[in-house]
Amino acid sequence: MKNILLFLILVIFFHLSSSAQTNKYFIHFTDKNNSPYSISNPIQYLSPRALSKRVKYNIPVTVQDLPVNPSYLDSLTSKGAQVVFASRWFNAALIDATASQLSAITALPFVQGSTKANRTTGIHKEVSHPAFGLQKTSVLSLDYGPSLNQVSMIGGDDMHNDGYNGEGVLIALLDAGFLNANTLSIFDSLFLNNSIIATYDFVDEETDVYDDDAHGMQVLSVMGAYESGSLIGLSWKAKYILLRTENDASETLTEEMNWLRGAEYADSAGADIINSSLGYNTFDDASMDHSYADMDGNTTIITRAADIAASKGILVVNSAGNEGNNSWKQILAPADGDSVLAVGAVTSLGNYASFSSRGPSYDGRIKPDVVAQGNSVVLASTAGGTFFGSGTSFSAPMISGLAAGIWQAFPYLTNMELLYYIQRSGSQYAHPDYKLGYGIPNYLRVKDLVGRNALDEFSFFPNPLENESLVVNLPRKEINRELKVNFYDITGRRLAEEIISSAGVRNELSTNIAGWARGVYIVHMVSSDAKYIIKIIKQ
After folding, report:
1. 210 in Cβ contact with 249 (< 8 Å)
2. In which domain, by residue range, is 477 found?
3. Which residues of 62-93 are buried (b: 16+ CB within 10 A; e: fewer)?
4. For residue 528, what pLDDT is reported?
5. I need a surface site. Which of 266, 280, 327, 469 has the fewest CB within 10 A?
6. Per-residue pLDDT averaged across 498-519, rounded?
7. What is the pTM of this model?
């Protein structure tokens, strides 16, 4: 009898434990009605730096920027759920809740639906592949030591000699942790100059990011380290925000949501660049795995978040992934984003590194976009000094550091113009492929391209284009003039006419091309003493 009673007690206990088990869910709301926040008062949720950037690049504040209605979050809490965070961009909240609590929450009239974020644990795939490689001795004004090759491959030494090292640019790193970065002498210049302006750990909900994984510290060293004769980063004078979004003890959709949260944080702080050396395709719960069909630029949570970040004026740079030697082979999310600069890896000699993930995106776009040295990269060690490591995790910050210097040199460029020029400077821009994309970019080629477009040439951006707004870059002699722009199809039929008054170097046109068919169009631009003709392609 006692045994039966004990059995019944255990059954009841396990039943109650099971019913009380919580999981993480992403709750999607229907609207942002009756919010205490408003578009007319964005200082409530965007920093002065973020607002200044919005004004500079003519990026409007929209309903998407408004925080989630606090009363909606209160309602979730009243049902017993724990709100982990709320997403402005997705109008959603990540919660910890039991099945019964979830049922009550999804019945609320302002809840559109839910997505399970999973909570199981497993083994995180390490993205670094330690290796030994080529060392060179610097003969330049800075003593790069063994890091010269990785810097000079993309023209970083020329960029530094021109005086550009990322100063004035704010870079947010989304990664797995920055172990010991605050105690290593190789980062002394960052801390002495107060260049780490903010830190947050979205996994453990704390500000300390220096006690977990070393991966982010190694990524940071590619950009921000400065130790003469050992390792000099591409952008050691930039400012940094260090954000831990990845939990290396598990792989769940929660980490994609942490990435979203980190990107929103970066946007509200006014970050110029996001460097993300992370990528996702499989999870501990196989039912949540991404398929190659999901790598279409529009499907995964993290990719949608990355593209939204780009729409806010942030240059999003992401590792392509290290799947080249695995059965998957292709890029990982969010590298598939159409507004994401996906970075693959080459060896110290500039050849394709076999571990580097390949393209195309599922919908056929060129990926990766560009490549940089990702094999035998000089990195900071947790014990002090440096070592050699490999992975697209380390080629991505090469490009982020390059971009920071270029943006310092040409601050009037928008994030998408900067992305375009980096692509166009690639060593195989005319003949891209799915291993190297547009190839190895170079500072001097970007400098030449931007200089010619700003001073001597008439050009349209982007070109080819889809349904974006058209931007025309004018020659120096046409600045402050009035110009007439006419658009023709290939039969000679005029489709639109527009006047640019008091033209500047960069001019956004109001002509709407959304209804135009795919194909080639001819643009005539006429000033008081010159006529320019250019072809544009609508994809």
Report:
1. no
2. 456-538
3. eeebbbbbeebbebbeebbbebbbbbbbbbbb
4. 82
5. 327
6. 81
7. 0.82
